UniProtKB/TrEMBL annotation:
Residues 188-210 are annotated as: Disordered. Keywords: Actin-binding, ATP-binding, Calmodulin-binding, Motor protein, Myosin, Nucleotide-binding, Repeat. Residues 1-322 form the Myosin motor domain. GO terms for cellular component: brush border; cytoplasm; microvillus; myosin complex; plasma membrane. This is Unconventional myosin-Ia. The gene is Myo1a. It holds the Pfam family Myosin_head. PROSITE patterns: IQ, MYOSIN_MOTOR. GO terms for biological process: actin filament organization; actin filament-based movement; endocytosis; sensory perception of sound.
Length: 363
């Protein structure tokens, strides 16, 4: 469940928002199809008829409660669900599968099929801690014990049923998701020399803290150096959703930035925009890039941002900027040195005239 939620936020932050930005900016774009796993998340976490909700309902229901009634209820609710199957649903579909025991159900997760054995689900989900034990621990003189059992405080005793393990985990995952959604996703990599993303101000300063969504690839099962198993890596790339991400990135634009920030960084590359541009930011960006003569297919002008397709184009821009900065620094140095030499010469000339006048007068 937690992996599904992490995959969902990965999809929303890196795939869905990527494509939605092109639509918002009015960029010509052919959408890339990708699997949205919200249907699986809803299967597990739906507050009315999700698997966790049904498990909590069985734990709280009076009468004889066991895993069989829980599994029967799931089979009735999800008999036609495309991502759920059990022995009963397979029999209804006339599917012969000896790998699925009768006490199990299977969920078709984004990363593949996972079989769950319901034995012990009810007992583990109750997660009950007797109130008298909590009160005894809280009454102990040991400070650490009292801090570990705050619910044993007689003044805070609640007659409500304690939350189940499933509801606690669901609340914990919801808190994690809220925290991640408040951040900006970033890819962590080692930038090559001259990579504009490693330069201050290249991508703009994020308005929010960043969040790294890790996607780690295990090259082999034995954790051995210099050993690469193609089948294992291919399966991980597919199951982590990286194929869709790569397709979106390759079909899209590697770099995008607001016109004002882009013009402020690269305006010294054109004599028409340097040192000041009197017009609008978009017009200035268009004038600047037209003078640099980049291919038309490398650029796209959105409503508020400039899009650059290839990193090579961006590296070329950054290289030209570094050369131009060096030229401007040389110009500043040359101008300052000329001013300093002229000022020193004028002082020396005035001093020489004054000395000559006094010497002639004295003579």
């Amino acid at each position: 469940y937690c992996n599904e939620k992490l995959q969902q936020i990965f999809i929303l932050m890196t795939l869905k928002e990527e494509q939605e930005e092109y639509v918002r900016e009015g960029i010509q774009w052919a959408p890339v199809e990708f699997f949205d796993n919200s249907i699986i998340c809803n299967l597990i976490e739906n507050s009315k008829c999700g698997i966790l909700a049904m498990l909590d309902e069985e734990c709280l229901r009076p009468g004889v409660v066991n895993e069989d009634t829980f599994l029967t209820k799931l089979n009735q609710l999800f008999a036609t669900h495309q991502h759920y199957e059990s022995k009963e649903t397979q029999n209804a579909r006339h599917v012969m599968d000896a790998s699925l025991p009768s006490q199990c159900f299977r969920i078709h997760h984004y990363a593949g099929k996972v079989t769950y054995n319901v034995t012990g689900f009810i007992e583990k989900n109750n997660d009950l801690l007797f109130r008298d034990l909590s009160q005894a621990m809280w009454a102990a003189r040991h400070t650490l014990l009292r801090s570990l059992f705050p619910e044993g405080d007689p003044q805070k005793v609640s007659l409500k049923l304690p939350p189940t393990a499933g509801s606690q985990f669901k609340a914990s995952v919801a808190t994690l998701m809220k925290n991640l959604y408040s951040k900006n996703p970033n890819y962590i990599r080692y930038p090559p020399q001259g990579d504009p993303q490693s330069q201050p101000g290249a991508g703009g300063t994020p308005a929010q803290p960043t969040a790294v969504l890790p996607r780690c690839i295990k090259p082999n099962e034995t954790k051995t150096a210099m050993l690469f198993t193609p089948e294992l890596v291919l399966a991980q790339v597919r199951y982590l959703g990286l194929m869709e991400n790569v397709r979106v990135r390759r079909a899209g634009y590697a770099f995008r930035q607001l016109y004002a920030s882009f013009l402020e960084r690269y305006k010294m590359l054109s004599a028409r925009t340097w040192p000041r541009w009197a017009g609008g930011d978009r017009e200035g960006t268009e004038v600047l890039l037209a003078e640099l003569a980049f291919p038309a297919e490398e650029l796209a002008f959105g409503h508020t941002k400039i899009f650059i397709r290839s990193p090579c184009t961006l590296f070329d821009l950054e290289r030209r900027r570094q050369e131009r900065v060096a030229q401007l620094a040389t110009l500043i140095q040359k101008t300052f040195r000329g001013w300093r030499c002229r000022t020193q010469y004028q002082l020396m000339r005035k001093s020489q005239i004054l000395i000559s006048a006094w010497f002639r007068g004295h003579r």
